[in-house]
């Protein structure tokens, strides 16, 4: 398997940080939880993990800036930036649910160069660079399922922007009746990685941030999938909405979401 030196070095940093998360997960005390907003939690674990990533990645590319969830560093570059989520699935982590991940992407202008999603508890390292998409060293591809009716899909519940809730529920109602089902794991990064390797046929969510989707979206594209906003454009990193799926079901899946959310202006 071809692997670029920068990819290999970044994977090592993700693995080291994941080891820290796993150690803390086994002993975490909910008294350490801080509330950013009613459905947004944070702890010393998020902060420490982000600092570990920033320190390690900063040594790899000193010229690069950072776009991070916990704002442990304020250094944004006009050209090259790491986009990182040190703990995607924080609520799962804090409640003892073993579904959380590290998400890393390297962005050059509008182009993603590298994407990583480390599913920590399963020790599954999903990653992609210009050579392709992989999980633990093996090449991965999106599902070949050609029928939305026999697809398994993933989503994430809104946690701060509830303006599109009625439209979201309409989408759920339609998909529940016309697919194999929907899953909500609580980590957008893992949802996207599972689309990339074919476990899910598609994923959608609104109200997301670039650190939630940057790594996983790139892995999907390198694995042969399609990714857009609810409006069908490519601004999903900062557009707060995302639809991702294998090419065969994408149009049918996207049409249901786009049609419903267009009414709410949630593109």
Tell me what the structure shows.
This protein is an alpha+beta fold and 267 residues long. It folds into two domains: 5-139, Fructose-1,6-Bisphosphatase, subunit A, domain 1 (Fructose-1,6-Bisphosphatase, Chain A, domain 1, 2-Layer Sandwich); 148-262, D-Maltodextrin-Binding Protein, domain 2. Strand 5 (101-108) and strand 6 (111-119) form a beta hairpin. The strands form three sheets. A seven-stranded mixed beta sheet has the order 3-4-5-6-7-8-9, sandwiched between helices. It starts with a helix and ends in a 5-residue tail after the last helix. It contains eight helices and 14 strands. The chain has helices at 5-25, 44-60, 90-94, 165-178, 188-196, 210-222, 236-239, 247-262; strands at 34-37, 40-42, 65-68, 80-88, 101-108, 111-119, 124-129, 132-135, 138-139, 152-155, 181-183, 202-206, 226-228, 241-245.
Layout: helices, strands, pairs:
Layout: H1 5-25, E1 34-37, E2 40-42, H2 44-60, E3 65-68, E4 80-88, H3 90-94, E5 101-108, E6 111-119, E7 124-129, E8 132-135, E9 138-139, E10 152-155, H4 165-178, E11 181-183, H5 188-196, E12 202-206, H6 210-222, E13 226-228, H7 236-239, E14 241-245, H8 247-262
Parallel strand pairs: 3-4, 10-11, 10-12
Antiparallel strand pairs: 1-2, 4-5, 5-6, 6-7, 7-8, 8-9, 12-14, 13-14
